[in-house]
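Data availability excerpt. The first of two example chains:
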Amino acid sequence: MAVANRMYARAIFQAAQDEGRLDQVAADLSALADALEDSPELRAFLRNPQIDALEKARVLGEIASGADELVLNFLRLLAEKGRASELVETNVELEALVARAQNRLAVELTTAHELSDDEARSIVEQIEKASGRKVEATRSVDPSLVGGVVLQVGSFRADGSVRGRLERLRRELVTSQL
C-alpha cells in the first residue's frame, strides 16, 4: 500500500474516532469501496486524468449521498488531491486501523482440503490465544498445497503447507555448499 493511502486512512480514522462515528464512517466508506470494485466504469472514470477533480467529487458525492458527512468531506478531499481512484486501497488501510482499534485480527486460512467447522474453530482459538485478539477468519481451499495450512494476516504469511516445506527444502538444497 502506498504511504498516501495510509495517511488518508489515518486522517479519516482519527476524525471519525474523535466524533464518535467510527463504525458509521467505516461502514459507509466500505460500502462505497465495494461499489467501486463492482463497477469497472466507475473505476475507469475515477482513474481518467482528463476528468476534472470537481466532477469526480460530484459523482462520488451523488453515489454516497446518504453517507456520513465525514465520508462526503473525505471523498471531496480525495478527489481534490487526485486520489479518488485510490479509494479502495485507502479503505483497506482504514479497515486495518479499525480492526486494530477494536482488537480484531483478520486471518485468511488456506488449506489443501476443506476444514471442518471444528478444525477451523480450533485453529482460530489457537490464533486468538497467541495474539490476544478476536480473530475473524476466512477460509479457502488450494489443493496445490498438498497438506497443511497457510495463514495470511495482513502482509504476514505463515506457510505451514507441504508445498511450502518442499519449496524451502528445494531452496536449501540449491543454496547449500558442500
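And the second chain:
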Amino acid sequence: MKKLLLVTMMLFAVTVFAADTIKIGALVDLSGGTADVGKPYADGIKDCVRWFNENGGINGKQIDLIAVDYGYKIPNALATYKEFKMKGVVAIHGWGTGDTEALTKFVAQDKIPYVSASYSEHLADGDKTPYNFFVGASYSDQTEAAIKFIKDNKGKSVAFIYNDTGFGRSPFFPDGENAAKKLGVALVDKQVVDLKALDATAQMLNLKKSGAEYAIVQETYMATSTILKDAKKNGLTTKFIGLNWTFDKPLMKLAGDAADGFYGVSPFAFWDETNVEGIKLIREINKKYHPEVKEREINYIQGFSSMYVLLSAIKNVKGEVTGEAIKNSLESMKNFNTMGLTPPVTFTKSVHKGVKAAKVYKMEKGEIKPVTGVITLE
C-alpha cells in the first residue's frame, strides 16, 4: 500500500510539474558543419529562456527547454522532431535550412509553430508554410541589399560563393540571380566552397579569371576565412560581401588581416553597439550568467533575439497555450520592439519573415563599422 501511495504521489508530482511548464523543443548544432555559429546561437536561446524563467516565466509558468544537438544532419532532425512531438512541445526553435524545409509539412500537419535560424525565403510564405517563421531578413533580401550596395558604389559585376547545401543555395537560386538582373549588375561567376574547406585556391583562381568586382558569400566563419585568405594570397582585387552567418569578430581571428575590407549584411545589432537597449540587457545577463565571458558573437544575439520573439508571442496568448494560438499570436505581431536587437518585427498571415531591413557593415583594423544606413527591403 505504501509503495502504491508513493508511486501515485510521484505521478501526481510529475503531472503537476508538466501542467505548470511550457515545453519548447530546440534543434541546435554543436557538432556538425555549422557548429562554429551554432554553439553561440544555442547559448543565446538558452540564456533567453533562463532570463524569462527568472522573471516570472510565461504568465507564471516556467519554460522547459528541450535542446538537442542534431549534428546538422537532416535524418537526425526528423527523428528528434518525433521525440519533441511525443514530449508534447508547443513550439520548436529550429536551426538549418535543409532540415527546416524538410520538416515544414510535418509542423503544418501537427500545428506546431517552428521558428528557425534559417532565413530561407522558402519559409516566408505563410500560405505555403503556415507554421514556419523566422526573425531576420531573408537570405534573398540580404542578397538584394548587397547588390543594391554594389550598384550604389558603381559596381557592374558580381559572383556568388556558396556551399552546396540548402543553406548555401538559398540566397541565390533563383532570387539572387533575379535581383542581379533586376538591378543591372552582371552575374559573372559562381563558386562552390565546402563549409569546412581549408583550401579554396582553385575557386579563387577561377574567380580571378572571371573579373568579378564583387563576390557575395553565403558560408560560416571557417569557409569564409579560407576564402579571404586564399583571395589575398592569390592577389584578387574582388571585394567580398558576406551574408549574416559570415560576419563578426570570430572571422577576424581566423582570417587575420585578410578580413580587412570585408563587407557584411546584417539585420542584427552587434555586441559593441552599446547604445542599443537590447545589447545593454544582454551585457547585463552575461555579466550575471557568464562573468568569464567578455564578448559575444552576433550569433548569440541572433539566438537571443529569435527566442525573445517566440516567448513574447507565447506570453501574449490568451487562454490555453496551443500551437494554433501561438501561430495566431505571432501573426498579430506588428512593429514588435526587440529592444533594438533587430528592426521592428512584423508578421502577417501571409508573410512569416519578421524583418525587412538590414545594414551593410565593413571590417577595418579589427573593428566593425556600418557603411550604410538601414536598407529597407520589399
